[in-house]
Amino acid sequence: MQSLTRILIPRQLFTLLILSTGLLNHVILIPNLLTASGRDSWLSVLLCFPVALFFLWLVSYIVKNCPDEGFFSMVQNRFGKVFSAILSLPVVLFLFCSSYLTFKDLVIWLNAYFLADASLLMINIMLIVVCCAVTWAGIRSMAISSGFLLPLVMIFGIFIAITNTSVKDPQLLFPLLADGYEPVINGGIYTLAGLLEIYLVILLQPFSQARIKFHQLLVLLIILIGLILGPLTAAIMEFGPTEAVTFRYPAYEQWRILKIGDFISHLDFFALYQWLSGAVIRIGLFMYLLGAFFTKKKHHYRLNAKLVIIMYLLLFVAIMIDVDTYTFTQVIYQYFLPACMAFFLIQILISALLIFVIKKRDEKHGNDTRINSTG
Question: Which segments cross the bilayer (predicted)?
Answer without folding.
Answer: 12-30, 42-62, 82-101, 113-136, 148-167, 187-205, 217-237, 272-295, 307-329, 335-358
